[in-house]
Amino acid sequence: MGRIKTVATLFFAAGLTIVLVALMVAADTIAQQAIEALTNPTVLGKVLSATAAFEPIETIQAPILIYHHIKDFEGSDAQADALYIVRPQNFEQQLTYLQDNGFTPLLLRDLPDYFSGKKVLPEKPVFLTFDDGLRSQFEVAAPILERFDFPATFFVFTNPIDRSDNYMTWDQLKTLVAAGHDVGSHGHYHLFWDRISAAELPAEIIGSKNILEDQLGITVVTTAYPFGEYTPAVTTAVGAAGYQVARGIGHGKNHRSDQLFTLDGYFVTNSFSYFKNIVGGR
Question: Which residues form the NodB homology domain (predicted)?
């Protein structure tokens, strides 16, 4: 009986030794794999990018693109409207170019987080924006955006919503929000904010923001100046109203952290060569 216990003890000890050796080998293998992973440029780049998330950025280079109608020309369209109409096939060609050249579309509402380092800025950022809340943006542009999985910011002036066939409905705007897009203010009546009286300004800046928030159940932090016009008094009022980002119209894609209320944006046309010149790429 004693010999049996001795043999059992030896087997147990041998088994325990095998287990310990196996654990040591596994630990050594894991450590070696970790070292190899961290010396891999791709993995190391991801680690460094995650670390960089805590580093604030002073300047971001990113084109902000401005669209209006996405549709084909119609007989009733005036020649002056050509600047505001991009054909669907041209719009799709532009998004394909962004995708093929490694651009990452972002939401303007997140721009402060990219400056502060709360979010990691991708290598080639771009911002897609749509002005006025036009019906073609929902019926034509949104399905194309969905195919590319590209988010966009829709700047809406609130007076015609649910009141005109040329503009979106509240349900359509809610659908855009649910799909991952953002909605910002473009005023209530689409007036020149730099020309109206101080008494009229709150209804445009604050009133439109409140309407959007009440109807859509979101916090509105972005706005686009109607006609791209603003003054120092207007930008001050925008900041005081609780907005964090405001876009105008211009010809620059270098944005500074102290210029969040005077961002430049490019009108997009049907010209593919002009589009490539705006965004860059290969």
Answer: 124-282
CA distances from 199 to 137, 187, 196, 231 (A): 32, 14, 8, 16
Please give the distance of CA 202 from its chain centroid, rounded to a whole number.
Answer: 27
> Is the pLDDT confidence value at 24 over 90?
no
Say if strands 59-61 and 254-256 run parallel, antiparallel, or are unpaired: antiparallel
Q: At a CB cut-off of 8 Å and minimum separation 6, what does 119 contact?
A: 53, 110, 113
Helix (H) or strand (E) holding 144: helix 142-148
Cα(191)–Cα(203) distance, integer angstroms: 11
Q: What is the pTM of this model?
A: 0.81
The residues pairing with 59 across neighbouring beta strands, listed in sequence order, are 256
**How many residues would you count in the chain?**
282
Helix (H, G, I), strand (E, B) or coil at 141: helix
- CB-based contacts of 14: which residues, under 8 Å, 6+ apart? none
Position 31 scores a pLDDT of 43
